[in-house]
Amino acid sequence: MIGALYLLWLSVSFFREKFKSKEEGEDDKERKPTGWLVKTFGFFWATVISVEIMDLAFSVDSILTALAVSEEVWVILLGGMIGILLMRGVATFFISLMNRVPELETTAYVLITFIAIKMGLTLVDIHIPNEIFIIIMVVAFLATFVIHAIRKQRVEKHSH
Questions:
Q1: CA-CA-CA-CA dihedral for 126, 128, 129, 130, to nearest 10
Q2: Of 10, 25, 27, which is closest to residue 108 (Cα–Cα)?
Q3: Which of 9, 90, 122, 150 is 20 to 30 A from residue 105's alpha carbon, by CA?
């Protein structure tokens, strides 16, 4: 329940900020992070702290998975390290992809909202099969790339 509420809060906060900036006439590229971490430590250190917290959070599930497989310490350590390395690699890839396709940020939060709902529904014994989630994820990403291509064409058309 806590995880579902947290993910839902993240999504609601993102969309609230996005719609607020659209109402104020701001461009997405003009939006700057304004969280307490950024205000306290600056953008660079807030990013470093966020990445480290994310690494810790994601390594916990790797460690729990490793504990389920084996009680050997080396398996647990290896699982945690591999989890952290994979997260950094995947995060780096997605950040570079999001720089090229900014619409992916919105797609990510739509999927986070769906995950929160999926997690919340399990509390009342309603289970959405993983196959449905994968289909929704693939359709969301395909739609995002189509929308990006259309927007890119419009920008190129208006610039000529």
A1: -130
A2: 10
A3: 122
